[in-house]
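Question: does this match?
>
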Amino acid sequence: MSLRYRLCVVAAVLFLVACAAQPAEEPAVDVAAEAQAIRDASAAWLAAIEARDGATIDGFFSADITTIFDGKIRHGLAEIQAARDEQWAEQPDSTVTWTTTAVEVAASGDLAFERGNWSEDPDGAGEMPEVYGEYLTVWKKIDGQWKVLHDAGTTLKAEEEAPSEG
């Protein structure tokens, strides 16, 4: 074998090894499937709230969750649990619901936001009026699971009643 032939064989082997060592391209993220996963997680979170299942609710949150609602900022699970327990004690018949209106998933597949409308009746079938608002929730995929990283919302003011004609 000639030296030239041997060098060509060595070069070819090195080329093949280099090609094999290249990481395979990651498959594209199915953002539609991930958006549906967010919708499903949000629905399960709501079901846990309706059941007043604090342990299940807490499982939807990231360790460093932050909530911001109408000027009240809470950092971390302990603050959120305390506020929830206090609300449940003060308003044992309260009900809450929400409707997701949009979900956007980053192309990377690890961050997403959910936007929607919520309503809360502080005393269920009692006399207190129901309140309404909008929310924005940021989700992060952690260890293969979608978790709430940030949750923010605001109460919308009711439209002023039209003056009566008379």
User: Anything to note?
Assistant: The chain has one domain: 31-155. Residues 31-50 form the longest helix (20 residues).
